[in-house]
Amino acid sequence: MKTLLDAHGDIDGIISWAMATPDDAPPSHSLSRSKRKAIAHWGFFLAEHGDPRKRWRGLPADDLIGEIVALRGLGPWSAHMIAIFGFGHPEIWPEGDAGVLRAAAVVFKGIRKPTMRKMIKGHESHVALCCWALLDKGKLAEFDA
Question: In terms of residue numbers, what domain contains 118?
Answer without folding.
Answer: 98-143
